[in-house]
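The data are quoted verbatim for completeness:
=====
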Amino acid sequence: MLGINMGQLSGMAKGEIPYDEAAASRATANIVALTQYDAPALFVEGTSSEENDDSDALPAIWEKPDDFRAKFAGLAEAAAGSPEAVQGGQDNLGPVLQKIGGACKACHDDYRKAD
């Protein structure tokens, strides 16, 4: 769900999708809502990429659970205020995407298997 909404925002920022203020606000509102879930709890021990070929989750998730949770909390902080920040034109998308994308990257760098 996070990826779908980020993809829509990214497409608008790149001009691949026409900028739509309502859609951009909705996508960022969805991201904000998703950060309110306890997503780290959905990562069940025994489902790492070393134990399951269909998983991209690195074992570090269970080795450093507090850091994993902190990085997810960082996504919530990065997304805060974004529904309003993307309003007013396509140029406002870039800074929002950098902030949210940076939080995603911080977690993925340590806890997601590289493609």
